[in-house]
Design brief:
Pfam families: DUF3071. It comes from Mycobacterium botniense. This is DUF3071 domain-containing protein. By secondary structure, this protein is an alpha+beta fold. About 35% of the residues lie in helices and about 20% in strands. It has nine helices and nine strands. The strands form two sheets. The protein has a six-stranded mixed beta sheet with strand order 5-4-9-8-7-6. Strands 1-2-3 form a three-stranded antiparallel beta sheet, with no helix packed on it. The longest helix is centred in the middle third of the chain and has 23 residues. The chain is elongated, with a radius of gyration of 43 Å. The relative contact order is 0.07.
């Protein structure tokens, strides 16, 4: 077996140029997945063809649907599998419809409060809460995904000013539409019967006094208050001409 030495990469970027003992002899080696597997020491993939390796990298349809059903997006699954978005979309579409249907059913369920399920549905409760806070209930987005335990998590997303907000509920199908239970603080505030209060109450701001305080007296001294004395200064007497000439002051002293 002759030993080759790598001397560079071909201009096409797909082949490695090697040479033997005689520098005039050049060899071209394709840089495929099997070569990369050999460099990594991955013996399981060295004997595989390129088509077999590509097929093993791709998720099966059931795996794609399982990830979508658990809440992943089409783009996330495609990026994780290293495949085109179009391939994932073919198998994800029915599961996305299933998630949308679960979210729709959850809006007709009844929120569970401290004294039992509410009379109003989740959609009616959330709509009233958002309107009471001056928000548009039409600018909301509902989504749902199935957890490992088989239950559905429902997410409500809405925008308040520049902030994006989300609330999560646990949906349990059942009679009369089923029930939903709050999973976080945002969800608890939305189904709170006292929804007239703001989501984030603000403390009243005290009125500020910008007048400068009077200086405090030194320690050990008693502060005496005296009425302010009025300063009355008359005009200074004007000396006579002869006083100025002789250097005599207006008081008569020299």
């Amino acid at each position: 077996m002759r030993e080759l030495k790598v001397i560079g990469l071909d201009v096409d970027g797909k082949h490695i140029i090697c040479e033997g003992d005689d520098p005039s002899e050049k060899f071209k080696l394709r840089a495929d997945e099997r070569l990369r597997a050999a460099v990594r020491g991955d013996a399981a993939r060295i004997g595989q063809t390129e088509i077999e390796i590509e097929a093993s990298n791709m998720l099966r349809p059931k795996e794609i649907q399982a990830r979508i059903r658990a809440g992943a997006s089409v783009e996330q699954v495609a990026a994780a599998a290293g495949v085109d978005v179009e391939r994932v979309e073919r198998f994800a579409h029915p599961v996305l419809l299933e998630r949308s249907r679960a979210a729709e059913l959850a809006t007709a369920a009844h929120p569970v409060l401290a004294d039992g399920p509410a009379v109003m549905t989740l959609l009616e409760t959330v709509t009233s809460a958002l309107l009471a806070r001056g928000l548009n209930p039409d600018n909301t987005n509902w989504d749902a995904w199935r957890n490992e335990d088989g239950r559905w998590t429902v997410q409500l997303a809405w925008k308040a000013g520049r902030s994006d907000n989300v609330a999560h509920f646990c949906f349990t199908p059942g009679a009369h539409g089923g029930t939903v239970t709050a999973l976080d603080d945002a969800a608890s505030e939305l189904i709170d019967p006292n929804f007239n209060r703001p989501l984030r109450p603000l403390a009243p701001v005290a009125e500020l006094d910008f007048d400068e305080p009077a200086p405090s007296p030194p320690a050990g001294e008693t502060e005496h208050k005296h009425p302010p004395a009025r300063s009355r200064r008359g005009k200074p007497p004007v000396p006579a001409w002869e006083d100025v000439l002789l250097g005599v002051r207006s008081s008569g002293q020299r």
